[in-house]
Specification:
Structural class: alpha/beta
Largest sheet: 8 strands, parallel, barrel
CATH class: Alpha Beta
Helix content: 40-55%
Shape: globular
CATH superfamily: Aldolase class I
Distance between the termini: 10 Å
Number of domains: 1
CATH topology: TIM Barrel
Number of helices: 10
Order of helices and strands: HEHEHEHEHHEHEHEHEH
Number of strands: 8
């Protein structure tokens, strides 16, 4: 049971992206991540430096968002956000794809933007690209996924959690089949229970973004004890 728990907590990005979040809540997020051993915490850019200081000398990574939540910022703004967040101590960047440009088949813009941001991140900083799957058809999901993979990012991420729909088994399976076994797939959006986490991992997710991490772990421990 211990190995199973360790494997799952190591896939979780413990997230707090609410606009009303306070410093005490952010610090609590960090402390929970340390206590459980989550892969990372994810916060809005304003809180990155605080988290970096709090998590210094721990294994928990600091993650933040770029172009969040709409993806419709200019590339220049996304560049500035990325550089600022990395300077403040971010180890991982989740960038929202420009969905409108993608819908107009402006794939060149999407590719160039991802390549530019990944160059800033270099090999040290993980870049995940959010395709906002709830706004795409299945064929569009596959096309967006391939663009993300071929443009040098490290992960395809399903949703912001603030848009239309959340992570689904079907979307994760489609994305995993498109990128193959060795690429990153992050499921995010509406993940609030242990069984959903298991299903998404089964579908191919190797990272889970959720604000309900603690509740999920408590549910997991209860179910494991009952076996």
């Amino acid at each position: 049971m211990k190995d199973k728990i360790t494997n799952i907590v190591g896939l979780i990005d413990h997230t707090l992206l609410k606009p009303e979040a306070t410093s005490s809540q952010i610090e609590q997020l960090c402390q929970e991540a340390i206590s459980f051993g989550f892969a990372s915490i994810f916060v809005n850019p304003f809180w990155v430096n605080l988290c970096h200081k709090f998590l210094k000398n721990t294994k928990v990574k600091v993650g933040s968002v770029v172009g969040f939540p709409l993806g419709a910022s200019t590339t220049k703004i996304k560049i500035f956000e990325t550089e600022s967040e990395i300077k403040a101590g971010a180890n991982e960047i989740d960038m929202v794809m420009n969905v409108g440009a993608f819908k107009e088949n402006n794939y060149r813009l999407i590719e160039d933007e991802i390549k530019t941001i990944k160059k800033i991140c270099s090999k040290k900083i993980i870049l995940k690209v959010i395709i906002e799957a709830g706004l795409l058809t299945n064929s569009e999901k596959k096309e967006a996924t391939l663009i993300v993979r071929n443009s040098g990012a490290d992960f395809v991420k399903t949703n912001t959690g603030l848009g239309t729909g959340g992570a689904t088994f079907e979307d994760v399976k489609l994305i995993r089949e498109a990128v193959g076994p060795d690429f990153g797939v992050k499921a995010s959006g509406g993940i609030r229970d242990y069984q959903s986490v298991l299903k998404l991992i089964e579908a191919g997710a190797n990272r889970i973004g959720t604000s309900a991490s603690v509740m999920i772990m408590q549910e997991m421990l209860q179910q494991e004890k009952a076996l």
